[in-house]
Amino acid sequence: MKVPFVSFLPMEKELDSALRAAFERVYTRSWYIDGEEDKAFEKAFAEYCGTKFCVGVGNGLDALVMILKALDIGEGDEVIIPSNTYIATSLAVTYVGAKPVFVDPDINTFNIDPSLIEAAVTSKTKAIMPVHLYGQACDMDPIMKIAEKYSLRVIEDCAQAHGATYKGQKIGTFGDAAGFSFYPGKNLGALGDAGAVVTDNEEIAKKVRALGNYGSDYKYHHIYKGNNSRLDEMQAAFLAAKLPILDKLNAERRRIADRYLNEIHNDKLILPIVPDYAVPVWHVFGVRCAERDQLEKYLNDYEIGTNKHYPIPIHLQDCYKDLGFSEGDYPTAEEISKTELSLPLYYGMTDEEISYVIDKINSY
Ligand SMILES: *Cc1c(COP(=O)(O)O)cnc(C)c1O
């Protein structure tokens, strides 16, 4: 049996007529940027998240960059981010000229360890950017407490966690603003690049919208040196077609993850832990294994697709040599980079496929 790491086909089959209708609607209207599809999706996604505003943007990285710019964070400022995340979190900070200050994760949750944040705060710290990694909420209460104590902004990177909750509250509603990615592989994915900023703060929403539209508040009038990063009509229409089944997609991911959690029994593996405060949406199901590369080869030999999130920690990436870090600086992120293996998990995986993955892991 062949089980790919990810497949969009079952989801696309289910949404086939809705996606084709979305294309037809936009194409027939012949209006592609800044129109009613964008407005309708923004309204629907704000409602889904429980925020007052949503601004569609070009991608998730731009969402984070424009939030930072809207908060006037840049040269000379520091932003606290987890050492274990996708590099986009860090790139957003360095793109605006600020310095990323890494904080190691809790090895049990893979998410930023709140007990290590306070030691990273300096007089230059402007914001904390928690990432709800692999689809599981960070421990937000202690993070918000530290932010309050030091008057720091909180920017949530929600790129992997559409619909996840913390103590019953949707992620993306805790900080000043949150960035989402709709990259095709994310829990809510477009058929191309797309992203969004959600916030309750009207000023941030207005500024982000202007920044993504050449810094323009109204046509041919420019208040910021902006860029071009908008959610186009076609992607907005596709996203609006998918949003109504996002909860169903996430519930199915939870069902698959629960089978892994309940049925994988192998002392060589450490399964992910779900704290009481979190209802995860399992963007990634990451196990840890001391012999990670051997386990990966073993599974790949049985035609089971796998992935690693992430094999090289950000502080050791070539592009960040200028930050002057070396091996050993963020031991937990390094440990995860050497031991984490992501198992197949996607909407439409059959029970036979799930059982096959479990059986092969149990007999490793
Ligand atoms: C995917 C991702 C991003 C960037 O989103 P894009 O739409 O690919 O630009 C940012 N942060 C995290 C944690 C991500 O996983």
Largest sheet features? 7 strands, mixed
| Number of DSSP helical runs | 11
Strand order of the largest sheet: 1-9-8-5-4-2-3
The level of helicity is 25-40%
Which overall shape is indicated by the principal axes computed on the Cα atoms?
globular
- Helix and strand pattern: HHEHEHEEHEEEEEHEEHHEEEHHEH
Low-confidence residue ranges: none
Total strands: 15
Bound molecules: pyridoxal-5'-phosphate
Give the DSSP E fraction (strand runs of 2 or more residues). Answer: 15-25%
Structural class: alpha/beta
Give me the Rg, rounded: 20 Å
Description:
With 364 residues, this protein is an alpha/beta fold. Helices cover 37% and strands 15% of the residues. It has helices spanning 9-29, 36-49, 60-70, 87-95, 140-149, 202-211, 233-242, 246-263, 292-301, 331-339, 351-362; strands at residues 53-57, 78-82, 99-103, 125-128, 153-157, 165-166, 169-170, 177-181, 195-199, 216-218, 221-222, 269-270, 278-279, 285-289, 340-343. Strands 1-9-8-5-4-2-3 form a seven-stranded mixed sheet, with helices on both faces. The protein has a three-stranded antiparallel sheet with strand order 7-6-13, with no helix packed on it. Helix 1 (9-29) crosses helix 7, helix 3 (60-70) runs parallel beside helix 4 and helix 3 packs across helix 6. The model has no long low-confidence stretch (mean pLDDT 98). Pyridoxal-5'-phosphate binds next to helix 3 and helix 4.
